[in-house]
Amino acid sequence: MRMRVLAAGVLSIVCATSALADVCNPNDLTLLKPDLVAEAPSKIRLLTRGRVRELLFTTTIDNVGDGPLVLDGQTVSGAQGAGTRVTQIVRRTNGTTCTHDVGFFPFGDGEERFHIDDFAEYQLRLDDPFTGPIVARFSKTEFCLLNIVQLRGSRRAPDFFDCDEGPMGISVGFANEEDSQAPGQALNLDANPITPVPAGDYFLVIVVNPNGAILEKTSNTPADAGVASVAVGGHSQLPRAPRPRPTRRPVHNPQPGSPTPTPSLPPGSTPPRTPIPPTPTPTLTRPVHPGVIVLPPGHEGCGGNKNKICSSGEFCQFPENRCGLVGDTGICTPMSVICDPTAAAVCGCDGVTYRNDCERQRAGTSRAHQGPC
Fold first, then answer.
1. End residue of a domain, out of 197, 232, 267
2. Assuming Cys at both sites, which of 177, 214, 290, 302 could form a disulfide with 316, CB separation 3.0 to 4.6 Å?
3. pTM value?
């Protein structure tokens, strides 16, 4: 469970200018570097506007490192025009700070604000979340990073960030969250009208700091990426069932007491039926994939970094062979009530051998593997 941050932090960061501060040595063991980890995207939904499909989702970036992520910016002009020179301020264990040049990011059309390009990359991959071919991608430009939520177990006071007047960033034990309705929180599946993304099963992957521009404690894409499995639908290729055209019938004004005439049909024929349009195919499903728990839209997950407690009658189901021991995110699953005694035995994550998988679910534990422990 995460707690909402209702007030600004109580520890202000005193940022020295790049002219006065030391330049960071990435190999300096006294540096308190941040460590950015993307959670699995949530609130996933497919939105169709005309002939354009967009995959919308919420992203949450945690800082689980030794020090805060602090980004300061200055407006400068150069050969590429005006833009933002972004500097990362890194603390040391002795209380001093140093600076790391993140890069120069030109202003876009009508956007003359402090920002950092390529803060994260949103990918849609086929077959495998890390090695599969990328069929759609979007580089996220970040204009504001704040301590939106606090991770459970964190007892640190948040640092003060202000995207208008001061530096922006993420404190240790906190996360920045971008809602699915915010600008830039979507993948356009029809960006190329000649080769649109076909319908099928994919992996939605969130990669934070993809170019390594930010100085971090670790930079391991498989460990730091957020992954969710989705299935997207394509544009319908079936024509609509034609509506029967009404036929004009002569007006009949019955006399009082006369029976109402019924239309005559040829011998052996049946009345025509109105065509029924086909049932639409769901646009979002969640295929099973080993080692990945798929979160339904709007589901925050449980266990791992979430530490969300499931409701009564549910338990936190983790990917098989993982048992939530490496920070995996699980999904709240109802416990079974009636079990088939003829099913094969399984080993639970609690080290107990159960006669069947149903009894394992009834006990409220995830499955370690098939067969006895």
1. 232
2. 302
3. 0.60
